[in-house]
Fold this sequence. Notes:
single chain; alpha/beta; 7-stranded mixed beta sheet
Amino acid sequence: MSIPYQSSEPAPIKDHENPFESMMERFNIAAEILNLEDGVYDYLRTPARQVLVSIPIQMDDGSIKVFEGFRVIHNDILGPSKGGIRYSPDVSLEEVKALAAWMTWKCAVVNIPFGGAKGAVKCDPSKLTQTELEKITRRYTANMSSVFGPDKDIPAPDMNTNEQTMAWIMDTYSMHTQRTETGVVTGKPIILGGSLGRREATGRGVMICTLAAMDKLSLSPTDSDVVVQGFGNVGSISAQLLYEQGCRIVGISDVTGGYYNAKGININKAIEYVQKNRTLGGFTEADAVTNAELLELQCDVLVPAAKEDQITADNAERLKCKLIVEGANGPTLAEADPILSERRIMVVPDILANAGGVTVSYFEWVQDRQAYFWSVERVNRRLERAMRNAFDAVYESASRHQQTLRIGAYVMAVDKVAKTLKLRGIYG
Length: 428
Ligand code: NAD
C-alpha cells in the first residue's frame, strides 16, 4: 500500500499559534472529513469541565502565598478522564485546554477506555523547597478531591512533577476517602502500586512506532541514521532503544545544545554521561551543533522529543529526514503540516507516537484495581501489541481518507468519540 499524503492548500503562516489553535486546526480537518454535525462538533471541541482553584500555603519563612491551580476535563465519553499535572510558572488555561484535548484523542487512538484531562499549578518549582512543593500538592489535591477519583479522573506526572508528587496526591486523596486508593493516580513509585515498565513506556512506544513506519518506507534500522532532539525521559530512552535495534544515532541534544557524530554516538555512554553530569554539556564523543542545526541534519529519522513548537513553516522547508516520529507533545505547528506533506516526509503524530506512556498508565490502573502486578515482560508485550495495532489502524485510516498519518489519527479518534457520544446520547 502506498503512503497517502495530504494535498490541501498550504495554510496561511501566522505570527504565533497557541497550542489550542494548533490542536483545533487538525481537529477541524478531521471534523470536515467526517462531516460532523454542528452540535457534535461543538460538543467535542468544548471542554466538559474547567476547574480553577486557589492554593494558599504557608511558606517556609512563615509568609502565606496563594497559587493558582487548574484541572480541565476535556471529555469523559470513553471513560474516566486521564492526564498529567504540570507545575510551571507560565502555564495558562489555554495550554491546559489543548493538552486535555490531546489526551482525549490520544486515548482514543490507542484504544484505551479513558477520556482526556490535564491539570496544572502555576508555580516555579525551582524556587520552592520540598516542603512547600508537598504543601502545594496536598492542598491542590484536597481542593480537587471531588474531581479526582479512580473511576472519575486520574492524574499522572507531567512537566516538573514526578513519582513523589503522585505519592503525595495518592496519600492526600486516600486520607479524604479514608481508604487507600492507589488507582487515583498513575506514574507512582513501584512500591506504592506503580507499574514496571512505566518509566520506559513512552520511549518504547516511540521505538515501536519508528520501526513500524520505517517498515512502510522500506528503511532498514541497521542502515538508518537517526537524530533525537531532547535527552530526558522520552528522548534518551527512544535513542537507547533505537540504538539497541541497530540504528545509527548521529545526533542528540538537550537544553545545552546539539551533539553530532556522523559515525554514530554510543547512546549508553551518553546516558552514563548525563547520569554523572546531569546534562550533555561538555559531551566530547560528538561535535557541538545548535539545536536549530540539529533539526536540519541529514538523517533518515528525526525524533523531536523535547518540547512543543520546534518544527515550523520556516524550518520545515530545510529538514532533510524522511520520517519524523513525534516523541514530544505538539513539536510541529499546524502551519508546518502542509509543507512536510508536500515534501513527502512521513510524520508519526504525537497522539500516536508518544501514547506508550498513557498506555502503560492504563496498565498501571488495571493492575491497581486488581491488586495483581505484572512482570515487565508482560507489560512490554502488551504495550507492543497496543502500539502496533494503533499504528496499523492509523495507517489504514490515513490511506482510506488519502490523508497524512496525523489527520488519519485525528479522524479515527474523533470518529470513535463521536460514535460513542451518539450511542450514549445527550442527557438533558
Ligand atoms: P524531560 O524533562 O525528561 O526531558 C526534556 C528534555 O528536553 C531534556 O533533555 C531537556 O534538556 C531537553 N530540552 C529542553 N529544552 C530544549 C530545547 N530547546 N532544545 C533541545 N532540548 C531541549 O521531559 P520528557 O518527559 O522527556 O518529555 C519530553 C516531551 O515528551 C514533552 O513534550 C512531554 O510532554 C512529552 N511526553 C512525555 C511523556 C512521558 O511519559 N514522559 C509522555 C508523553 C509525552
